[in-house]
Amino acid sequence: MALEKLGDKLRGSLQRLFKATHIDAKLIDQITADIKKSLIAADVNIDLTNKLTETIKRRALAEKSSKLLTAREHTVNIVYDELVKFLGAEAGKLEIEKKPTKIVLQGLFGSGKTTTASKLAKYYKKKGLKVALVQTDTWRPAAFEQLQQLAEKINVPFYGIKGEKDPIKIIKKFEPDFDNFNVVILDTAGRDALNSELIKEIKAIKEAFRPDESLLVLSGDIGQTAFKQADTFKDAVGISGVILTKLDGTAKGGGALSACSATGAKVKFIGVGEHIEDFEEYKPKNFVSRLLGMGDLETLLKKAEEVMDKETAEELGKKFLKAEFTLTDVYKQMESVKKLGPLSQVVGMIPGMANAIPKELLEMQEDKMKNWKYIIDSCTIKERDNPDIIKTSRISRIAKGSGKSEQDVRDLIKQYNQMKKVMKQMGNPKQLKKLEKLMNMRGLKGMPGF
Ligand SMILES: Nc1nc2c(ncn2[C@@H]2O[C@H](COP(=O)(O)OP(=O)(O)O)[C@@H](O)[C@H]2O)c(=O)[nH]1
Ligand SMILES: [Mg+2]
């Protein structure tokens, strides 16, 4: 997950809040000091950090909690609220309204432009739009092949002229084709710094291409320096938004995100890994929810809908929340969860679950799940619907049938029962009411089970 370390630390500070018997000025002081330390470790600018923690402190002490929330929940909510504002407030939307919508990506060497071009193309393709990729990086020898290969991988038309030195000629040559697409994404060359040569090149490209969106691609690992980079690009060539990449592998992502927000540049997407799928719309509310371990059902359900149809997703969601699931449901769920991504990411999006299960256990779980598939395959329908009947002789038959050990079969049954217990706890009416309250407050209404 992005900003893992910062998330761990912030969740630690909130734990302190949850454990406290009552909330007073001293505790608020401790918690804000904690938060400050975590943010500075994530390379957030010190003045910004001071302002944020002062606001949290002032609000936590001055505002009375509403009837709906306990004092604790109220304080957590203030932290949540202020962090959302700090990391971007509103989501940076990028609607495709006209055909073609032309997007140019600009940025320095290695910021992730070419990778992001293909991620963005895949993102729009999944929405059913016709997308084209254009390479105008005539600077790097292998840029042509890099984007061509990525385009092939995601099956998106690619435009470029191998060996051509003038980006304008490339744009002019393919311009008549652009009208055939909903989205045309243009990759450009970078430099080590935004020098006069790069400014001249980007300006000329934009004059020829006439983009609807000029997105600055920034690498998250530059931390608070993002402020200066976003500002100079904005002044010199103009930007309509930012894509922040490499948020998976850096401890400085918090600095980069808050810096962009401070320049007023909207972060529209984030890159969270090297693979084409490791890419998300940036929605500060959902992002902070996940960071604080409050889950992000909206993103999870959207992902789930992408890999299975909406009805199946909702039906399974409800069954699990009511703890009324069978091994067949577990099987179905496993199949779709696999498509959703690593288990640790998926679990982090479920409210209340982010801290509940240690990461090592989740990794072990992933290996075990491979065995479960074989085991469930060897169960009869009756056994799948009613796993309680799986006792000694059945265990030995299933083990033989699946080629797994009896211990593996017993593990699965045990896990199934544990899962049921956890879901029963999570799904109890009181817990659900609380979740509902929090989700409604965050504007995340309309989730299955809510
Ligand atoms: N971990 C990680 N690596 C990324 C991400 N985006 C890009 N990269 C890597 O960063 C390097 C530079 O990317 P590239 O797209 O060639 O940058 P460009 O010079 O701006 O076109 C490559 O090795 C990419 O795999 C990301 O979100 N996460
Ligand atoms: Mg490139």
Q: What would your notes on this structure say?
A:
- Helices cover 58% and strands 8% of the residues.
- An eight-stranded mixed sheet has the order 3-2-4-1-5-6-7-8, sandwiched between helices.
- The chain is flat and about 75 Å long.
- It contains 20 helices and eight strands.
- The chain starts with a helix and ends in a 9-residue tail after the last helix.
- It has three domains: 83 residues, SRP54, nucleotide-binding domain (Four Helix Bundle (Hemerythrin (Met), subunit A)); 191 residues, P-loop containing nucleotide triphosphate hydrolases (Rossmann fold); 145 residues, Signal recognition particle, SRP54 subunit, M-domain (434 Repressor (Amino-terminal Domain), Orthogonal Bundle).
- Helix 10 links the parallel strand 6 and strand 7.
- With 450 residues, the chain is of the alpha/beta class.
- The C terminus is likely disordered.
- Helix 3 runs antiparallel to helix 4 and helix 5 packs parallel to helix 6.
- The site of guanosine-5'-diphosphate (GDP) has 18 residues, from helix 5.
